[in-house]
Amino acid sequence: MRTIIHLSDLHFGRVDQALLGPLHDLIHSIAPDVVVVSGDLTQRAKVEQFEEARAFLDTLPGPQIVVPGNHDISLYNVFRRFVKPLDRFKRYITDDLDPVYVDEEIAVLGVNTARSLTIKDGRLNKEQVAGIRTQLEGIDPAITRIVVTHHPFDLPTTFEEKDLVDRAAMAMETFAECGVDVLLAGHMHVSHAASTASRYRIDAYAALVVQAGTATSTRGRGEVNSFNLLRVEHERVEIDRYGWDALTNTFRVILTEKFLRSGNVWAPAAEGMLAAGI
Prior knowledge:
By secondary structure, the protein is an alpha/beta fold. It contains six helices and 13 strands. It has helices at 20-30, 47-58, 78-83, 87-92, 126-136, 168-178, and strands spanning 2-7, 34-38, 64-67, 100-102, 106-110, 144-148, 182-185, 192-195, 208-211, 226-232, 236-245, 250-262, 265-275. This is Metallophosphoesterase family protein.
């Protein structure tokens, strides 16, 4: 079994400082095998915000898979937005926009979906999808395959189709061929976990999509600050959602969801949802 901490939408520049210490301590107590950050490390892609994000990441365990989000591209500086869109991200966070971690049980692939030409939307292109296929070729079928993006492939039905990453359907066809198991994303500041079966009708294939809320931003959009802990086995994934409890000033488990694999189809386990109020 592998454990993965899934953080997203940190938004340094709009961070609740009171959350950073408890989040740091809890992550270290969990001692994950991998820490994933699915984009929007900053609020406005400013140098000082990237410096703060970098300093925080340096306090967390590794290995880390970190991808940019739309907020990590300058919004108002037109030259920087279109000529050097991710220059600061590459300078302060990582110059690898397609990071990969592979061990004996999991393969985690990060993919950049942030684009200069849109304010908040994201997309994948054919070259990126082909790159995912190449990365996964030759990997043992027993290894669980995880793709990390900022923009999501699936959302609750209360959201619109336009909120999904552009060219999602094209990518999902390739994911089916490559046997991608889990899709991790952020962007909407909403937590969510489900099978992709209802949105993408692909024969004998459904991935598990896991959406993270915002771990530290003051822009909660009606949801408490939260992050995910995934316990990954080849035939089973268990997801603990940790939410911020303002009464105790701690993150605690507020929801546990369990998913099982049957062939190449992921679906909720029968006992899959245990809820607790916050």
